[in-house]
Prior knowledge:
Elements lengths: L3 H17 L14 H5 L11 H12 L21 H13 L10 H17 L7 E5 L2 H15 L5 E5 L4 H9 L3 E5 L17 E7 L11 H11 L2 E5 L24 E4 L1 H4 L7 E5 L2 H8 L27 H37 L3 E3 L7 E6 L3 H13 L6 E5 L2 E7 L7 H16 L1
Parallel strand pairs: 2-3, 2-4, 4-5, 5-6
Antiparallel strand pairs: 1-7, 6-7, 8-9, 9-11, 10-11
Bound molecules: pyridoxal-5'-phosphate.
Pyridoxal-5'-phosphate binds next to helix 6.
Amino acid sequence: MSTFREDGAAALEWVANYLETIDEHPVLSQVEPGAIRAALPASPPEAAEPFSAVLRDLDVVLMPGITHWQSPRYFAYFATTGAEPGILAELLIAGLNQVGILWRASPALQELEEVTLDWLRQLLGLPVPLHGHIEDTASSGLITALAAARAAHPDRRVVVCSEHTHSSTVKAARLLELEIRKTPADDAFAIRADELDLDDACAVVATVGTTSSAAVDPVAAIADRAGAEGVWLHVDAAYAGAAAVCPELRHHFAGWERADSIGVNPHKWLFTPMDCSVFFCSRPEALRRAFSLVPEYLRVDEDVVSLSEYASPLGRRFRALKLWATLRCFGREGLQSILREHVRLAALFEEWVAAEPGWELCAPRHFSLVCFRKEGSDEENEEIVRRANSSGEIFLSHSKLDGRFVLRLSIGNARTSEADVALAWEVLRREAAL
Ligand SMILES: Cc1ncc(COP(=O)(O)O)c(C=O)c1O
């Protein structure tokens, strides 16, 4: 412990150096399954080791098994950024080691979380105050939403969603023993509101920014139906929610202010290190009905409701600190300028694909995700992705739309420049030409 300052300085230096030299690593880890496990001792050490040994093995043993989500040439799934304010806040969070089981266990944790989420609500243009708390992931948020919906409607067992809804909705329904009813999508991969069947439904999940193609469900039309039939509306905006910081993109979210609950992941596209998923709710009393359980040893005299009464975990990390740090150190303008640049780069890439004979766009682009393919078989396209990823120069992922294999280029890293996107296009055309 006496070397804490030195070790801390070395760890910070390690991270600073890593971020400065991130370009030197293959973006997708190139190790074989089991290689990292085989390089690690099978048993724990008997004697204490210095922290420097951990840093050394991070370099020597673990780095080959790191896929570089922080790389500007990471374009897979939904690209993210763990930006510097959140990195430093994570150190402070661990140093303080707050365990937010109750308000009194850390008044600052709870009240900062409340204030920070109200800031975020304002940044997203959501008009009225909402309950907000932070969860680890959007998947947990789906469980929270559907559990509250089930408690609100114990006689209804169906969750309605789209065929393009993220698998976390299906998983949450399975855990809660609810039945999934998928609604067909239109040509733009959005729910067909005219096909919604809310009979016996306790919840309907609409997505703004679906995982495969970032499609936008017609939230306002779904909210009309959900409101008329008393069905809980959850809006899953895990990836795209951040875009609402930019007023010119807010039309995609029309109607989400009428949702019962909303999920947005700052750890996806709001520059906050994993993990930080925000859950907003306009019916906090329904959350408490589903989740509040206060045993004697947690009973307190203060007239304050702890955040643990609104979701499943009791202990709560001080995640608000890293979101607060991120919002402060970027400011509205900083967030907007990076989000706008990502949308601009995606639009540029889309233009290049559209102009290139033999390539086609496969879905409308609303945010910073482009879905495309080379004309030809699924196998040829799969081979292009495989070769591009194993070159180490870029990393991108795929999905299936209308039964066809499509490539996905997702822009979400704060360091990604036009040169990185141009390189991605060059690599893809090179691999396709082989
Ligand atoms: C639309 C959508 N919802 C939910 C999720 C699940 O997110 P998490 O990893 O935070 O559970 C994702 C992940 O990509 C997503 O794209």
